[in-house]
Amino acid sequence: MKIILTHEVSGLGTAGDVVDVKDGYARNYLVPRGLAIRWTKGGEKDVEQIRRGRRIREIATIEQANEVKAQLEGVKVRLKTRAGDAGRLFGSVTPADIASAIKDAGGPEVDKRRIEVAAPIKTLGAHQVSVRLHAEVAAKVGVEVIAA
């Protein structure tokens, strides 16, 4: 099935790309989550709007990405959350929580979809997350999870 991506999907493409995927993947995952729309001849007009919006929001050059990377790596991110006696969290820390903690710590605004958490954060302590800023630039951010 041909679809038009409305958001970046790892391993598939970026917003505005027209890709061919299996029917079930598109019907059951991409379209219901708003990550893609079905391709039509009329939808071809939407592709240019999506690409234009992506260019506005996107970090255009590697130099800009490196500047944001330096800002992110210089920020000390502390996230307060509820935890049990053994240091296990009630739930887990989400990329949205990390994005708001980065902004609260004085760092640049980061899109939660660009934050990659290797394993779910379910314990107190220091953790590393990666923020994809550009196709070739990723920042490593240290997140310290403390009890509230």
Automatic annotation (TrEMBL):
Belongs to the bacterial ribosomal protein bL9 family. GO terms for biological process: translation. GO terms for cellular component: ribonucleoprotein complex; ribosome. Gene3D superfamilies: Ribosomal protein L9, C-terminal domain, Ribosomal protein L9, N-terminal domain. Binds to the 23S rRNA. GO terms for molecular function: rRNA binding; structural constituent of ribosome. Residues 13-40 form the Ribosomal protein L9 domain. PROSITE patterns: RIBOSOMAL_L9 (PS00651). Keywords: Ribonucleoprotein, Ribosomal protein, RNA-binding, rRNA-binding. SUPFAM superfamilies: L9 N-domain-like, Ribosomal protein L9 C-domain. It comes from the Bacteria. InterPro entries: Ribosomal_bL9, Ribosomal_bL9/RNase_H1_N, Ribosomal_bL9_bac/chp, Ribosomal_bL9_C, Ribosomal_bL9_C_sf, Ribosomal_bL9_N, Ribosomal_bL9_N_sf. It holds the Pfam family Ribosomal_L9_N. Transmembrane segments: none annotated. The gene is rplI. This is Large ribosomal subunit protein bL9.
